[in-house]
Amino acid sequence: TKKSVIMNGHGWGGLPEHMIAEELKNGELVALNIEGFRPRHTEVFAIRRRDQTMGRVKGEIWRALQAMAGQG
What we know:
Layout: H1 2-7, H2 17-26, H3 56-68
């Protein structure tokens, strides 16, 4: 919804780059560099008990997140 609002010229806002990569590439959207507004960076952690291995589902989700971040 937020992307639609922005794409229709009704405002600006932060969106994950992977969701707008094509629009940035073809010029439909432009990245704003506004003094005083630093880009947001989010850290995601996988937490588990030391005496248990990471389960299959959590492992798949973690690998997918790493791949999206370019670390997999």
